[in-house]
Amino acid sequence: MFEVLVAGETLVDFVPGAGETLREVDGYAHRPGGAPANVAVGLARLGSPPAFWTRIGDDAFGEFLAETLAAEGIPETHVERVEGRTTLAVVAPPGADGPRFDFYGSRDATFGFDPDAVPSEALTAEATGKAGDPPWVHLGGAALTHPDGRAATRELLSAATDAGCPVSFDVNYRADLVPDGSGAAASNAVREAVAASDVVLCSAEDVAAAGLSTDDGAALARDLLGFGPHTAVVTLGEEGALAVSSGAAPWGAATVRHDGFAVDAVDATGAGDAFTAGLLSRVATGNGRRVGGEDGLRDALAFGNATAALSVRSVGGMGSILSRDEVAAFLAERE
User: Fold this and answer.
1) Are strands 231-235 and 241-245 parallel, antiparallel or unpaired?
2) How many CA atoms lie within 13 A of 309 on its CB side?
3) What whole-number distance in Å separates Cα of residue 180 and Cα of residue 123?
4) Can you say whether the dihedral through the CA atoms of 47, 293, 270, 201 is positive or negative?
5) CA contacts within 13 A on the Cβ side of 150
6) 269 and 316 in contact (C-beta within 8 Å)?
7) pLDDT confidence of 217, banded at 50, 70, 90?
8) What pLDDT, in 10s, does the model give residues 90-127?
């Protein structure tokens, strides 16, 4: 039984060692990654193992990722092993020019989801074991950079809507993954996904790369609500996060902000995914689905920020997410 179905890519992050530029770095460490995979593992570590629909190549890196997901308690039911090389995301050193990530490997294997393979059977109340309570669906935007990924995402969103599943969408748009000439199609798909979701999560960088307008955080959140979701959550890096919701949200109309926590950061890779896992563990699982009012939404932001703050104190995204008890202890100490 599970309460959340996560959908999206699993890949390998290559994280640089000490050094400001590539010339100074003496090596890279491989770490499991991919925003949806980080969220799925984060939910498992926070006490709510989800179902996870993903694709993994049949190479050695794919085997490494499959073993990692299994060790983290992610059921293999919807983990597809496909022919092709696993995508590698090489993280740039902090002082390097250019994009933060460069991608290598088969994008077809990682992002080319099959629309006919959407796990519709997992979108029922029977899958959660709770009558009348279908699972929450969470998906990321990187798959929208691939034509098959776009088609599969549309199919999943349609099936989730028909099944009455709450849906959250992490924009997480990676322009470098978009083939030449496909930018408009990918950006339009982001807008469609935002419109079809209940909760949308993003940073200003995400929406700018996807061709959406940006302003200050609260204005950006209100603009996103205009597409159709009832809640927009904007992450602000070291400054925390904010959320704006309409009266259609289970927690009612609210505008809340949490300023985050000051910590000694070592590596910010995956911090946004840790935040998302922490937030979803409060709003999408257990009694969290009955979060009420501004206080409940603010508490969810605080838990997400605490999960992210703890994650940046060590290297790597997925492996740095801590347990629910550890996050709760950190919150109790800080607040």
Assistant:
1) antiparallel
2) 24
3) 35
4) positive
5) 18
6) yes
7) confident
8) 988 888 876 778 899 889 999 999 999 999 999 987 87
Long-range contacts (CB closer than 8 Å, 24 or more residues apart) made by 209-216: 209/173, 209/174, 209/175, 210/141, 210/171, 210/173, 210/175, 210/186, 211/183, 211/187, 212/187
Strand partners, 53: 7
**Assigned token pair, 21:** 């530029």
Picking from 110, 86, 107, the residue whose alpha carbon sits closest to that of residue 7 is 110
Checking if the pLDDT of 266 tops 80, the result is: no
CA–CA–CA angle 24, 178, 60 (5° rounding): 60
- What's 96's DSSP letter? -
CA distance 178 to 241: 28
Which residues have C-beta within 8 Å of that of residue 209, sequence separation ≥ 6?
173, 174, 175
Q: 3-class SS at 317?
A: coil
CATH of the domain at 269: 3.40.1190.20
CA–CA distance, 301 with 295 (Å, rounded to integer): 10
Q: CA–CA separation, 140 vs 129, rounded Å?
A: 25
Nearest to 179 by CA among 139, 147, 210: 147
**Residue 43 is part of which domain span?**
4-334
What is the number of domains present in the chain?
A: 1
Q: CA nearest 54: which of 109, 3, 5, 10? A: 10
Answer whether 0.85 is exceeded by the pTM. Answer: yes
- Indicate the helix (H) or strand (E) that contains 242: strand 241-245
Separation CA 128–CA 34 (nearest Å): 25
HSE-up (13 A, CA, CB side) for residue 117:
17
